[in-house]
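Bit of a strange request maybe. I'm writing a small parser for structure token strings and I need a real example to test against, not something I typed by hand. Could someone generate the tokens for this chain?
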Amino acid sequence: MKKIFILTIFAALVSTFSVQLKAQEITKKNGYTLSFESNFAALDPQLKKRLIKTFFEVYPKLAKEYNPSTVKEVKFFVDTAYDGVAATADGKVTFSSMWMIKHPEDIDVVTHEVMHIVQDYGRSVGPGWLTEGIADYARYKFGVDNEGAKWSLPVLKPDHSYKNSYRITAAFFAWMEKNVKQGTIKAVDAALRDHTYTKNIWEKLTGKDLDALWADYVKNSEV
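Reply from user aminoacidic:
Good idea to test on real output. This should exercise your parser:
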């Protein structure tokens, strides 16, 4: 009886492992590999294709622009247990299945998240708002269908600050690239990655510190 019980457990484990293997899809293209997994049985096959397609469209561009040494193998996992939007760690992006259901048009969540892989700051010497602002700036610059997701940079409001992160910070960076000095954000990103970033870098690159740059932005925030 005990032997039968053990064999039953073993069979169940093998079956579970087989299901997991079937849920994994590996795609290789132009030197990059994407492993796609999901525990969400109702995932739209067309959405899955778009997620994969978006990765191969934007990741090589982000790598070329910011970090050619970024990892070549990335994992996507659509998870029913994750209740955020998406999260990235160690070359793996976890997407919320609920977010996919409610916002299937938000395909450039891929662009934002894989930019975090490219950033590869490790234990960052910079503030969190800067990391997220750069990732959303990358989405603004390289996104494949921000319009379809009704995603855009926000109009400046009196209560905004460059420390608000995400799109608010990204809008400031887009303005800076257009009106102050092109290549500033790329240089800041590189400094964060090699851990040479300090708040003085803005003045070295542009001649003004962040507060002075923000004051100029407030006067004319058109991008």
